[in-house]
Amino acid sequence: MATSGQAPPPSRPRPTSISPRRRTTHVFVSTPEEYDDTHSFGGRGESNSQRSRLSWLGSWSSVLGKQESHQTVLGEEVFVDPIGEGSDEEQEEAIGSVRSGRSTPSYIGGSDHVPVEEDGELVNEQTALLPKSPVTYHTPSSTAIQTTLNSINLLMGMGILSFPFALSLTGWIVGITLVLLFALIASTTAKLLAKCMDVTPIDLPTTTSNLPPRPKSMSYGDVGQAAFGRRAKNFIAIVYLAELYAASTALLILAADSIHALFPHWKLLHIKLGVVALLILTTWPRSVRGLSYASLVGVVAILNLLTIVVVDGVTKADPPGSLLQPAETRLWPKSFDRVALAVGIMFVGYDGHAVFPNIYRDMKSPVRFARCINVTYLVVSAFYIAIAACGYLMFGNDVLPEITLNLASIPSYNPVLNKLTLWLIAINPVTKYALAVRPVHMAIENTLHLSPPFHLLARTVLSILILLTSLLFPQFHRLMGLLGSAFSGTVAIVFPLLCYWKLFGGSLGVLGRAVLGMGVGVGVLVIVVGVWGVVGARV
């Protein structure tokens, strides 16, 4: 019971469906803070029994160099809201709930729940299991401009280095068509994903007993679970672990290739050994908070890249490497297998769908999300076309899979500017590797129930395996093609469309279902053709 002088505890509210404007959320920023092992991925603060039930969806996207957040998901309480957009009053009636457990956020410090009042104290079924630590609630705070800038930063990762090479594979007509087509497809599925989120908001238990309940935003995996059940979320988790392993390998290759361009007399194998030794050290600390801020190097590197390419191109009067006198190019592709390889390389730059839920939930006005997505993909496509066109005009059919390698091969370019660009590209993977590989080694540690003394060993062995993978598959553009086809095709096309079909199919007409079916077919085609190009293209 409440004593004199103390405010009575808040009474338990009935579960309600909350408007997106009132939902708490992760505050998505360019460089996320990440808790140490105690707070993330079922870390040391969780019991072994809890860790054995671990399933997660890291909000990591497939494009290298992106800034993302991640979640540990041990279960959640789902309240299904069939109402889409609308006023708070229109969304006050709950439709039902699906019971499955609780969830721990990535870097908020707590989660939300509907408490129960017993003897004047707010408790719940998790009270005895969870520490009563303070909880910081983050409310939606991003304006439309901030949302657009975050989305642009999310999409423009290190995959942009291969866009000139991809354009050389496809020729002008097919290449520009693919860029615009992929932008249309990805922007559409991003908006459909947001609609799926509004159908199924989630209310989660909290770790404290003195705060009123607040709703928790959904992750990408929650959409899959709402549509297809727990197995769908587990499937997405497996896809992401494989994707992050491939992305980590690509980061190692990119760093080694950039350093080799700076010091061509050094053996590439020796460079990779030195780089992986440095990367292993970045995985040992329990917290990667400092590295997440250091990943701002990636933002600077991308913004610097187009500037350097244009400056180099206009300061050289003769080919190769000149915009004033362009090299020979093609209107049409030389063969179909070259187009197939370019499919994955190009599409990887449009997949931010695993992180879009975080961005959407942080919007003050979620109804403007569709417009923000339209602007984002318009700006990003213009940037991709600009860098691809400049690189292709400068080096023609001799453009390399990483445009920075071409820049390093022209001695008449400004050496200071080019070396600065190469160093930024080389350092960037070092700042991001630990962030990218962290969910993978946490999965290993929790699945095998490793004690803390074995964590460093597991992380070291994992990095050695990534090194061996980079030696077996040393080509950066093929890894980017695999990421863009097998993984991005699944995450950014097929899965969002299937979820939308499952949740909204009953309200769609024959034409609507036919369009969705065609979209799924296009996604499968991207996956099949892209993977075939990675394996079979003779480039």
TrEMBL record:
The record's keywords, sorted A to Z, are:
Amino-acid transport, Membrane, Transmembrane, Transmembrane helix, Transport
List the GO terms this entry assigns under cellular component, sorted alphabetically: vacuolar membrane
What Pfam family is a match for this entry? Aa_trans
* Segments forming domain Amino acid transporter transmembrane: 142-534
Where it sits in the cell: the answer is: Membrane
- List where the protein spans the membrane: 154-185, 235-256, 268-284, 291-311, 339-360, 372-395, 456-473, 479-503, 515-535
Sequence segments annotated as region (Disordered): 1-52
Molecular function terms in GO for this entry? L-amino acid transmembrane transporter activity
- Give the bilayer topology: Multi-pass membrane protein
UniProt similarity note: Belongs to the amino acid/polyamine transporter 2 family.
- The protein in question is named Amino acid transporter transmembrane domain-containing protein
